[in-house]
Amino acid sequence: MFGPSGCGKTFFALDLAVHVARGQAWRGRAVLQGAAVYIAAEGGYGIQERLTAFSCKYEINPEDVPLYVISEPIDLCNSDTDVNLLLDHLRNLPSDPPVRLLLIDTTSRALAGGNENSPDHMGALVIRCDKLRSMTGAHNMLLHHTGKNVNQGARGHSLLRAAVDTEIEMRWDKDTQSGSANVTKQRDTRTEGSFGFRLDEIDVETSDGGKITSSCVVTPTDGPVGAVATKATHMPKSAQTTLRALEKAISECGIIPLDSDHIPVGVSVVTLDQWRDYAYREGISTGKDRAKQQAFKRASEQLIRSGYVGRSGDQVWLTKE
Fold first, then answer.
1. Do 200 and 219 belong together in one domain?
2. Phi then psi for 4, rounded to 5 degrees?
3. Count of domains in the chain?
4. % of the chain surpassing 70 pLDDT
5. Residue range(s) defining the domain that contains residue 271
6. pLDDT category, 304, cuts 50, 70, 90?
7. What is d(CA 285, CA 132) in angstroms, rounded to the nearest whole number?
8. pLDDT at 210
9. CATH number at residue 279
10. DSSP codes of every residue in 109-167
11. SS3 category, 216
12. Which of 69, 188, 228, 274 is the least crowded, having the fewest Cβ atoms under 10 Å away?
C-alpha cells in the first residue's frame, strides 16, 4: 500500500487490520479472521491513539481484539537478526486465533538505512518478507511512500512492485477532504477495486494524566476521488443487466437479516438463487440454460470483485448506489 504523506495510509491499514482481527466483513467482503500485528516502525506510540479512536467510535473493547502493536523499528535489509527476533515474538503470542496479517509501517524504515533504489537492498527486504510469510503463514502488508511526483508510483526500485501480489495506491483530495484506495496490481486475477473514504476526527484520552487529544477513524464513502475519479469503470452490458436485476430483487423480496459480523447492519439482502432468477428474467442471455448460467456467473463475480455487490455465503447485497 503506497501513497504520499498525509493520504491516510496508516488509518486505512488499521481499519483493515481491525476488521481482520475481529473477523468482521470489510466493505461487504468476508475476511479470514485472525490476529493482526502492526509494526509501527515510523509512527511509534502514536499508533495507540489511533486504535483508541477506532474503539471509541465503534464501542469496541480493545482487550477483545487480537491486534498487537510493536512500536519499534525493524531491519529487514541488513541481516536476519530482527526477522528472527520478530518470529520469536510472534511465537509467544496466543495461538488462537493465528496471526493472519502482518503490517510493516513503513518500507523505508524497514530498509534501515538501505537504498530504496538499490536492487540489492530492495531484494534483501523482499527475501526477508518472504521468510516472514513462509514461517508465519500470514499476509504481509508493507506501507510505502510515493516520490515527489505522486503520478510515478511508489518510490524505489521496481523490484518491489514485481514481487508483490497486490498493490494499492492511496490518494487524497484536499479540496473534498476525502481519499481513495485503488487496486493497481493484483496477481493472477483482474486488477479491480476503488474504495472511497473520509477521515472523521475523534477526541481520545491519552494515558499521560487524562490529556485529551484527537485522532481519526476511516469512514467509507462511495467511489474514488480526485484524479482517480476519471478512471470510471465501464461494465459490460451483462454486468449492468445483472446489477439492475439485483436492485429489483432487493426492492421486491429483500430482507434485513439478523445481526451478523459478515453483513453490514441494516442492509437488505437476497439469496444468490433469487438474484440469479431475476437476472434470467431481465434477459442476461438469450441462449439456453448453460449460456445463462455462465453469463450470470461471469457478471456476478465481476460485480462482487468491483465492489458493487457484497456477498456472505448465500446472501448478497448492494454496496454502492
1. yes
2. -70, 165
3. 2
4. 91
5. 237-318
6. confident
7. 47
8. 62
9. 1.10.10
10. HHHTT--TT-HHHHHHHHHHHHHHHHHH-PEEEEEEEB-SSGGG-BSS-THHHHH-SEE
11. strand
12. 188
